[in-house]
Design a protein that fits this description.
single chain, 5 helices
Length: 147
């Protein structure tokens, strides 16, 4: 289960030093720090379930979504997500893997997204066509190659 620092500190409020207790729990492996201020309790959680909590608003798209739908033969090792109006790409290396975030135009951001649930986790992922459009949007144009 994903928890924020504030959620955990509220749970540990009966301790004299909740921050020190949290630090010990991280060292013991009870909590795994994903990024600053965000923790996971399950080491085996599928990484795509964490993407929307790491940086948002975002939805899974690009190569990861294309691989999720079986539209590309390659293995995709980074969870790729779309954001809007962030003006720069973000990259997070975590104990759960690599997470990459890229901007798409804000006018198309809310279109073609599915909200899915796996267990207690909810996540947003682009529909297959949307993932392909997002991927094409981020690719550099090719020169005309007339022979």
């Amino acid at each position: 289960m994903i928890k924020t620092t504030n959620m955990i500190l509220a749970e540990l409020s009966s301790y004299a030093n909740p921050k020190a207790k949290l630090s010990r729990l991280v060292k013991e492996g009870t909590y795994i720090q994903i990024v600053r201020g965000l923790y996971e309790t399950d080491r085996g959680v599928p990484r795509h379930l964490l993407a929307g909590s790491i940086y948002g608003p975002s939805y899974i798209s690009f190569a990861y979504a294309l691989g999720f739908y079986g539209m590309i033969p390659e293995a995709v090792y980074a969870v790729t997500s779309a954001t809007f109006e962030k003006r720069k790409n973000k990259k997070y290396q975590t104990p759960f893997g690599m997470f990459l975030y890229r901007d798409v135009p804000s006018a198309v951001f809310p279109l073609g997204i599915r909200l899915l649930q796996e267990g207690d986790y909810f996540y947003r992922i682009a529909e297959p066509e949307k993932a392909l459009c997002d991927q094409l949007y981020t690719m550099p144009p090719t020169a005309n190659t007339r022979e």
